[in-house]
Amino acid sequence: MFWATGTHAAGWRHPDARADAAYDIGLIQEVSQAAERAKFDFVFLGDRLASDPALQHSNPAQISRLEPYSTAMAIAAATTHIGVVVTANPTYSDPYAIARLMASLDHLSDGRAAWNLVTGADAAAAHNFGRDAHWDTARRYDWAEETLRVVRDLWDAAPEPDGTGARRIDHRGEFFSVDGPLDVARPPQGHVVVFNAGTSDRSRELGARDADIVFAGPQPTLAKRREYYADIKARAARHGRADHVAVLPGLTPIVAPTTEEAVALHDRLNALLVLDPEREVGDIVRAGGIGEGHQRNLTSASEVFGVDVRGNDLAAAVPSSTLAAVSEEGARRLTEITRLTRRTVDGPDRITYGDLVHATPAQLSHVVVGNPEEVADMIQEWFEEGAADGFNIYPAYVPGAVTAFTELVVPVLQRRGLFRKEYGGRTLREHLGMAVPPR
Ligand SMILES: Cc1cc2nc3c(=O)[nH]c(=O)nc-3n(C[C@H](O)[C@H](O)[C@H](O)COP(=O)(O)O)c2cc1C
């Protein structure tokens, strides 16, 4: 999971979705229980430390949400085996606070906590924490690395539940002075499992050297996904930890019993997107130009595809001659549209103007549209071709897309021997096959 209202920007508007899901803890618990019945490793909670009221009608999931530590505690109380991942940004926190909250969550969940360490994509967060600007990459990662060192030292020096074994850490670093010991007993998992999500070289390095799981963003082709995977593993090998870092890309499955139904569902979700009004800009047809992230209309599609498609009916098919004239980036996206919609650049069932518009938003994850076997095929291909060790499944809308995946795709993966039928242990480390680190 990523956002309780779904990861498709219009997921909250789907009739099987609950638009108020972000504040319905009963529903969040039910969805977590459904994922646990399907034997998922974890429920994943994303977070932002800023709001964006401009998105009220287009993507309310991005405006506000429950604070993730509290949400995770409520999920842990309603489940027994599934892990709970909390996104926490050290740029705007303090190592002692993170060590204490994560250790508490690990105790309250009997060893099922994980920390998704991000350094933040929201420049607006800086203005909520008394800073003039979001720090540059180097400073954010220097800070994050020292934070992670201090947090793990605090866990290692924490007392046992009976009060024995505690010691000071007397950390004196570039950014922090922390004496310790922590006032929470050592987490049941020793170290809470650490995910890292980022895109920069520094993020890849932190992930490979210090994280248990690298949570990967979307890559445009299978070759790029394999390249990314191999890069993380090679970096991890240089730090002697090739077998200790798992790479999990995000995946949004749009699945239905038949391919036709899945394509129709994807079309329906896209038809529910709130598009920006057309804006007039000069010289829009630039070869390979990329439109602004949030703008979605035929003007932005014209920029992205490098052909002027303004003023057309979104449901109409685009002439083959126009599709043949798109930019190199446009051609890559046409291939992607065909993969998702099964519509083509020539022939009777051609790509529509609406498809061009829907292909322009920045995707947070890879989207796969198909019947259960087709979705399972893609998962198997990535796994067997060296592009993924597993996936972070993002439901497009909640709860319908969660049950669609658990009821339709999980049994296929189990039949193919690709997914567990029972939990082998109780803690998240046990699910992931990761040993408890010694003190
Ligand atoms: C798959 C993925 C998930 C992410 N999830 C979050 C999130 O929940 N909250 C957040 O503030 N940032 C999130 N980020 C953003 C990262 O924190 C990161 O700052 C951003 O991608 C910029 O990359 P860099 O930090 O490597 O420069 C995510 C990034 C990726 C790739």
Describe the structure.
There is one protein chain. The protein has 439 residues and is of the alpha/beta class. It folds into two domains: 11-251 and 371-432, Luciferase-like domain (TIM Barrel, Alpha-Beta Barrel); 259-358, no CATH class. It is 38% helix and 10% strand. It is built from 14 helices and ten strands. It has helices at 25-37, 68-78, 95-108, 137-156, 201-210, 222-238, 259-271, 298-305, 320-324, 328-341, 353-358, 372-384, 400-415, 428-432; strands at 42-45, 83-88, 113-117, 171-172, 177-178, 193-196, 213-216, 246-255, 366-370, 392-393. The strands form two sheets. Strands 1, 2, 3, 6, 7, 8, 9 and 10 form an eight-stranded parallel beta sheet that branches. Strand 4 and strand 5 (177-178) form a beta hairpin. It is globular. 45% of the residues are buried. Residues 281-293 have low confidence and may be disordered. Flavin mononucleotide binds next to loops.
Heteromolecules bound: flavin mononucleotide
CATH class of the largest domain: Alpha Beta
Query: For the residues shown, what is the average pLDDT?
Result: 91
Given the structure, what is the number of helices?
Answer: 14
Structural class: alpha/beta
* Rg from Cα: 23 Å
Family: Belongs to the NtaA/SnaA/DszA monooxygenase family.
GO molecular function: monooxygenase activity; oxidoreductase activity, acting on paired donors, with incorporation or reduction of molecular oxygen
Pfam families: Bac_luciferase
Binding site for FMN: 47, 87, 141, 200
